[in-house]
Design goal:
Elements: H1 2-9, H2 17-24, H3 28-40, E1 44-45, E2 53-54, H4 56-65, H5 67-70, E3 75-83, E4 104-106, E5 112-117, H6 124-130, H7 132-146
Antiparallel strand pairs: 1-2, 3-4, 3-5
Helix pairs in contact: 1-7, 2-3, 6-7
Length: 150
């Protein structure tokens, strides 16, 4: 999912597995395996060997209706971290929340303190810090993963 969101956030840029791995703090083989799984389940298509792209309608449907069941959000104690869900753009400021109430992914260089939320993937906070467009998508996905209307 992290690989799909990275590519969706930067369409029509073409990515090598090595470049994706570096951008997402994972190995090229992890990125490749992620793409293979996405193609196998219809979240991506591969018209030619080495070429692939996300299937945006399927990705949206999965984000809206499936992700919270596959990767449930697990809440934890308050820590310093990277804002997510309604604590990050594009939802920040649109949802009323007291200081320190917005969730974060625990990370030593994070800019906020709040209840922790398990990231979609262990390197998501690091990848989000380096890529604002990806951060926005991950934050929206976390709002869906928590499954609570605010």
């Amino acid at each position: 999912m992290l690989v799909l969101l990275k590519v969706a956030a930067h369409s029509p840029q073409r990515w090598t597995y090595a470049a994706l791995g570096e951008a997402l703090a994972m190995s090229a083989s992890e990125a490749h395996a992620s793409v293979k799984r996405a193609v196998a389940c219809g979240l991506a298509v591969s018209p030619e060997r080495g070429e692939w792209s996300p299937v945006r309608p399927s990705l949206l449907e999965f984000m809206l209706h499936g992700v919270r069941y596959i990767w449930p959000a697990t809440a934890g104690p308050a820590k310093r971290g990277v804002p997510t869900s309604f604590g990050a753009e594009p939802l920040a400021g649109k949802v009323a929340a007291a200081a320190g109430e917005a969730p974060v992914w625990a990370h030593p260089t994070g800019s906020a303190k709040g209840p922790t939320l398990s990231p979609l993937y262990r390197t998501a906070p690091q990848a989000a810090l380096a890529d604002p467009a990806l951060h926005r998508l991950l934050a929206l996905l976390d709002a869906l993963r928590t499954g609570r209307a605010r």
